[in-house]
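Quick illustration, no need to memorize.
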Amino acid sequence: MSLEKLDLYCTSKLDELKAKGAQKGSEKVIAKITVPDWVKQGRLPDATKDNNFGPRYFLAGDERAYLLMNSNSYLGFSLHPQVMQAEEKSVQNYGTGPGAVRFISGTYQPHIELEQRLAAFHGRESAMIYSAAYAAVMGILPSLINENTLVVSDQLNHNCIINAIRLSHPAKKEIYQHLDMQQLERILISYATGENNGHTPEIKRVLVVTDGIFSMRGDHAPLDEIVTICRKYENSFAQGIITVADDSHGVGAFGETGRGTEEYTNSKVDILIATLGKALGVNGGYVVTSRPVIEYLRETSPLYVYSNPITPSEAQAATQSLDIIDSTEGSKRLKKLRALTMRFEQGLTQLGFETIPGEHPVTPLMVRDTRKTTQLTQHLFKHGILATGLNFPVVPQGDEEIRFQINANHTIRDIDYTLEVLSNF
């Protein structure tokens, strides 16, 4: 069969994306990393005295060294010697991959140990690993949503939540304005009091779903308020109100001990989804909740049942990352991360740039203009800094930004160099 007609269709769609400014273009390929000795040794220089540069990255076909200011590895664990050693040792014991889905012969001891560790880390009864956090959201929500379910979602929730809701075909979907708790409560009241009784079928269960940290902005959901509001109206529905948060950017990077948005807001949602692929520095996603819910998902969630898990070595490495987070070193890394984030935010403000302040290491520079955002991204690249420019329609028109992400392998000199380059734009 010829692909000629499909090629024409794909080309036209690519042209449309380019015209809108939404085409991502060719990927930058990292070909080499130079790692300072203090990173190789798992040490952290004093954030107030450090006079060195952190790791530098080299792109294929480019001899220049780049500072990575758009990495999700918030604690620097992807280059941590103990995490790397744990993965290497596990490969020797279990091989490079599971070779099967979990219910056949793809469950290895490191998978079980990691799930137990994740449950304990978050103070839950049980946990379950997915191949990715995106797969977790796509696999979990459709298993919990049926023809009698109302889904209530924040306006700026991640693409995985949006697509999971579309896949689920709930009885009704409601969207509240970003972080607008009054509107969230009005929505719940309207269904709890029967104002929407004319809608069929009957609403028996409500799922309120939100990001913990909103990845484009670095702000967080007020989970404490969300949980309180939902508890007020849960008895109005036969199967209650279930709170769900995807805190992939929060876990390991937010909160005093790295427990994420739940810790920061002193609250706990019913179902917490997160990733191993950001602050934990490895790969994969997971969910923590009650034991009956986990057992149900193991039987019904297709992206778990029919997909290979992460490798045993990745599971072992993630367990090592959790151990470091709960150590003295982990506390120091989190403290350094907060200090560098504050330094960068204050520097942006002093230079006259607009940002969204907060303790999370996602720090947006709000440009609010597509052309200027592109120019600023190119200016940073020219001076050896990799940062992510976000233009409409990836973000709403008027919210165009450069998204910077601080990590524990950055140094004061890295932060100050970035601010110096920005000052010369």
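The longest strand covers residues 205-211.
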